User: Which sequence fits this backbone?
């Protein structure tokens, strides 16, 4: 009931603070017999880690994970899978300065307001470091989905005002990982990199949008009326740090269409029911229809900037904040595997839930 | 685990199909001692019901509710509150025609794909009629929130391409109910009505956007890291029929701002910590900070239109669908109380959850 | 989270008070496609209803149920199944006398202490009338179990000091329903009836023990380490009014055996792994092994007696209580279908849960 | 939904196998601001650990725990508390012998039947080693209960056929820890020790009964109708390895009493409502009434014995099993802190749940 778990059957609980001994995750409900590919888990973690390139933070988090339980002879046993990712390179002293001060648009004030106590070191529990735990669990979800031929892929479609307008089906998504900013369109990618470098120089930060596509979806996933597939996916991605919005299928733009334009006509394609357009984003009535699911996730610009800012301290005094530390001018590229992880976890959960639907 | 419940402590379970005997809801976890104002419940239901005006469906649903349990001498007792809303005016025969046919962008196909059986009469469980149960439960949530001086208000900000661009704080939200389309700006409201009348004549439908504001919020609501307040609200509204997107605070537009523009500066206002801007939408790190919460909810154009459409039947044959029945060219105005209900339910739940946070 | 739901996938929520309009239940998670045999549901309800014979209360509860939703053309659709059982013959005036008084060993005091408000009419929510809702939902669980060839049967093995010592495998359980007290051993049954008649004359009440056997169990049900099959069954039966104890397999008597006597030897019976004894009660490590599950459930003597009793009222004054009303001197025979229902519900839930265990 | 979590608000998830790197627990929902007394946690763990005395196993488990998260400057922060207890002295080779063989009355066969894969080393997930994680989490629950002046104490009341018949209120429970078998009655304790020594010599094992008392209970805990306080406690203790039965208050013996004997008369004691007897065990209608809660928990004799036993292997062949390893002839004394832990966890959860009951 406390909020550190998500999923009903394929269910994760994360724990750990930015500057504690480790962060970690317990995954309960992974079906027994799944081959756990350790190299793949590491690879997914590496996609999220800081210090990947010149445009990310120079802070080094060496994401070495250890599986504590639930895997035997490289297979899931049905027991809970606990994974630890030790924290390294934690410079707590960087944070002494903000012990008594509320950084603008950070969670410092709200954590104090809620709990009356706060592990201020590096943002503590509210640090995005927690998302490493999501990524490693999401990698296991992806392994399960692969078994069912379901594929989850995301890329950066917007950074600040730079936008990749090409429809996803016309992009070569295999190129995403070749781009420093994880945008598969080379021209747009270059423009994005420049804008991030500019923001970095200015001590400022940028937001952006990540698009995620799920292909190979079976029909039938989603549990009306509240646990509709897109509602659970929406919650899962909205729980990621800095996310401000979620839309799927035609999304906000679809509100401007007429019903006669927006309706997706069914047709019979070699014995399979498909739609000729896909404004529905692969979901009707909260249940997948077998077409691609796709969605956009909006990230605000990172709150941590180098500028001197006005704020208050714990006692309510007006103060100026100058956050030192080492931070990303734009976290969106590193958020790509996090979005994929949260969506993979949600679909894995619904795959299992759907196994109990019919006699 | 099946998807017909939402909320952890203040928790509802809805049941019922469009053309069955009744729809209803069980609310478990309402604190004992709350005065249940029956007139208010009726008033909220009336805001949602069809046949309110010339621009909505002529279908009549007389929303007479009955409280079956959990209320004694007009107060909640702590026992589950069950409420029934009998179905009337159900013309099942209208639906015989679509028994074997999948209406485009409806849930007919996906329900069959998932369950292998479908109560086709009036959309059955996937009908928006189910939302009446949400509204009556949401009315009880509002009564609880009123006790804590929290107020949830929504209005229609866009219908199709007609948009109310005025910031919500400059509108007189008390005017919302005076407008047939629930837009408090008279000029925009008139334009919206015209566009709906046009769509009605064309046998077409329109989508739109609802904005919801929560004022009087205490600081401290929300349960990181997954049950962040906005994540749970997002799921709650995404579970409403026809919703395609959700954004809060600066939302998608915020992705185009720089951190230095977007950060909300804290200041001390007569001893209370407030922010000078509110791009955060009243939430930081998933926890409310005491400022207004506000969000936009995107609705697609209604799938039910008068046009002749191509589709397939259960056997996979290509067919033409002409849906008779009586339907709304635009459901957005009637969805205003539904959005309010889902958000009120979510905040009521988090209010109670937060009672256990500190020693 | 409030306590009126049980089960994870096959999940029921009950509602209603003794003297309100109706009691009822919502069953969410019943697999689609199950034939709902209405006559069987009625038959199960009739086994629980009062006024069955000279030894039960003369109070008449006509258990006419109505299915409100979730069943279409006599099959479950996957939507929540709501069932109402209207209350009749409710003489609230009988209870005016105890409005301000705490009856000994009833829930009057504790409900007031917890909720600060109490629907005192007929015990309100704490009345055993609520168990009718469990029985009708349990009947659906039994229909699901029959599909898997699992059979749940209970009988009365002890009333007060009268005991049926014959091992269950030597009894003809088909005779249970022929006995007024639901004990399949004719001689013991007669002695039990006499002891109940005596208690009735004395205005006193008796307790007893119900034994329940589940045959046809598949191996593999139960979810370690907390949701062990017997732990969930134990909770389910302990939640029945008046239950004071639960034991399964060798139970309390098994504590006096040595390991060498108690261990159940495995053997191969025509290719199936079975045990030669069954002290384990069909469960090892919390998971069913395919042998019979069996358990004992202890019921205290009914708290409602005709005797004049000492107590206190709401203001703390010493008072004398004389409860009129019409009550059972011994509820154990009527509790047999309730025990079966709670166990059937739990096993149905675990059957579905187990579907997600392996890749 | 997988079974490795228990509790609704104060909720634990355990993980880890007997011979893996570590076992551990995540406690989510501990209120912020609780002083975490590390010495007390260690002391509780030490009460459970093997090798405490001549009558327990010589196997050494050095229960050194590490808090990974959720505690800052010795206080709970409201974030999940993760605790690791590394495994030491793991002789996996001892278990190669039982890799393919199903030990009688162990969970070897059922784990294989359920999951199709089994970490056979030391019983893997079904090992009682998992209970160390419960004990350390239970110690935190006890710290919370102490804050509310609630005290949970258990002792061994029976070992095999040796019984302590003195009523608990006449015993000096402070003497429990002075006894090797945790029985506060010196004479009975000595007899128990002798019987265990005899069983050890014979290569056999003994069962027994643990009684647990909770004093200082507030009135109002428990959530009807399913999450009655005793039902949740019952489930919690039934989930402990080797438990076969649970009774509270008058329990099974109460079934032989008449209502007029069994009813607990209310009286006013200096302004507090109390009962003159306590057959109810401090609970009426599933809600605590402020009197002591007390219960008995039945443990079967340990399945691991030195005798040569008949069984089958994975292929269904008849085999003889001779389990070497180092095991306890009687685990009951070491189970005392486990019973206390599970009951403390359940009451802590209900304390928090009850905070949301009233307006």
Assistant:
């Amino acid at each position: 009931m406390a909020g550190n778990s998500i999923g009903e059957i394929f269910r994760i609980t994360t724990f750990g603070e930015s500057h504690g001994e480790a962060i970690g995750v317990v995954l309960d409900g992974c079906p027994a017999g799944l081959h756990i590919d350790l190299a793949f888990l590491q690879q997914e973690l590496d996609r999220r880690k800081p210090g990947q390139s010149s445009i990310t933070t120079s802070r080094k988090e060496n994401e070495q994970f250890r599986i504590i339980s639930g895997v035997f002879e490289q297979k899931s046993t049905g027991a809970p899978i606990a994974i630890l990712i030790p924290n390294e390179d934690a410079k707590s002293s960087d944070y002494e300065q903000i012990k008594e001060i509320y950084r603008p648009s950070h969670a410092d004030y709200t954590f104090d307001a809620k709990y009356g106590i706060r592990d201020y070191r590096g943002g503590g529990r509210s640090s995005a470091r927690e998302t490493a735990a999501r990524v490693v669990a999401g990698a296991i979800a992806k392994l399960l989905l692969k078994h069912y031929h379901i594929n989850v892929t995301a890329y950066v479609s917007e950074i600040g005002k730079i936008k990749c307008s090409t429809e996803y089906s016309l992009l070569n998504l295999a190129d995403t990982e070749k781009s420093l900013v994880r945008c598969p369109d080379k021209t747009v990618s270059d423009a994005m990199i420049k804008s991030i470098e500019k923001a970095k120089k200015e001590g400022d930060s940028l937001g952006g949008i990540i698009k995620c596509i799920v292909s190979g979806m079976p029909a039938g996933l989603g549990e009306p009326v509240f646990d509709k597939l897109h509602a659970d996916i929406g919650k899962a991605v909205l729980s990621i740090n800095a996310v401000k919005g979620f839309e799927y299928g035609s999304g906000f733009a679809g509100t401007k269409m007429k019903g006669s334009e927006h309706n997706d006509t069914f047709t019979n394609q070699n014995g399979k029911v498909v739609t000729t357009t896909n404004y529905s984003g692969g979901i009707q009535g909260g249940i997948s229809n077998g077409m691609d699911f796709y969605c956009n996730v909006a990230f605000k610009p990172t709150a941590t900037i180098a500028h001197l800012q006005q704020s208050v301290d714990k006692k309510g005094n007006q103060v100026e904040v100058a956050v030192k530390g080492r931070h990303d001018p734009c976290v969106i590229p590193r958020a790509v595997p996090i979005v994929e992880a949260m969506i993979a976890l949600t679909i894995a959960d619904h795959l299992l839930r759907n196994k109990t639907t019919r006699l």
